[in-house]
Amino acid sequence: MAAAVYAARQKISFLMLAKDIGGQTALSSDIENYLGFAHTNGADLTAEFVKHLEDNKVPYSTGEEVTGIEKKNAAFIVRTKDKSYETSTVLIASGKKPRKLDIPGEDRLYAHGVTYCATCEAPLFKDVPVAIVGGGNAAMDAALLCSNYASKVYIITINPDLMGEQNMMDTIRKGSKFQVFYNAKTLEISGSRNVESISFDIGGQKKQVGVKAVFIEIGSVPSADFDKLTEKNAPLKSRSA
Ligand SMILES: Cc1cc2nc3c(=O)[nH]c(=O)nc-3n(C[C@H](O)[C@H](O)[C@H](O)COP(=O)(O)OP(=O)(O)OC[C@H]3O[C@@H](n4cnc5c(N)ncnc54)[C@H](O)[C@@H]3O)c2cc1C
Known about the structure:
By secondary structure, the protein is α/β, with parallel strands linked by helices. The protein folds into two domains: 2-93, FAD/NAD(P)-binding domain (3-Layer(bba) Sandwich), CATH 3.50.50; 114-220, FAD/NAD(P)-binding domain. The chain contains six helices and 17 strands. The strands form six sheets. A five-stranded parallel beta sheet has the order 9-16-10-11-12. A three-stranded antiparallel beta sheet has the order 5-6-7, with no helix packed on it. A three-stranded antiparallel beta sheet has the order 13-14-15, with no helix packed on it. The radius of gyration is 21 Å and the shape is globular. It starts with a helix and ends in a 19-residue tail after the last strand. The site of flavin-adenine dinucleotide (FAD) has 21 residues, from strand 1 and helix 2. Flavin-adenine dinucleotide binds at residues 17-20, 23-25, 27-28, 31, 33-34, 65-66, 93-96, 119, 223, 226.
């Protein structure tokens, strides 16, 4: 969106194609480090971004996921599900998407208790136990948010300790709602229609806890997998955690 505002101000002929408006910002809850906005949130900041686009008459099309870019002589063909666009230049600013665990049950139970967005879904799981997979800032942030609603918050991390901001680690270690499983490798998410449990290997033993939701917070990967033309310095495949 920032690139599009610059392009519009330069009177370049272009179209901004976007799967959604707001990207990761739209998924954020409280935002307190964006200069000029001492306290805001993802939804409000996204609304400001859209206003900024519209003030600059940025031509954009949302709900359009780019699926491939091909070279055609001196031009590029940018393909989405239903359309294709010919252009001389492509600017890719496609950000990141959540890294997946790649374990059984993750895809099947997605949106049935498996989620990558605590901001969006934590309030849905009131007075029930939930699990957070991960042990960094994002996982702790999700755990703290979930603790406002859930009856119990299990944190399952592959690492020997939590890693992140000290104040979050202190709150979680002291809080009676939290139970952290360290050195635990997540194996499977189970449930017939909705999430019922999560199992993991801890010290060579399989353990299972009953939960209604699994929040996966193990980092993110670039969402530029549609671009096969540009050399990249890191593989885009997801890593298991
Ligand atoms: C939960 C959460 C909380 C955060 N909190 C903060 C915070 O408090 N302060 C802070 O500074 N930062 C925060 N961040 C990080 C911040 O949101 C990101 O750094 C920022 O959004 C990155 O912007 P971006 O435009 O590079 O990428 P993104 O926000 O990822 O946007 C990329 C856009 O590209 C689109 N896209 C992707 N693939 C395609 C495709 N194939 N075709 C078409 N469109 C596509 C996406 O739909 C999206 O609209 C947070 C992130 C998250 C997830």
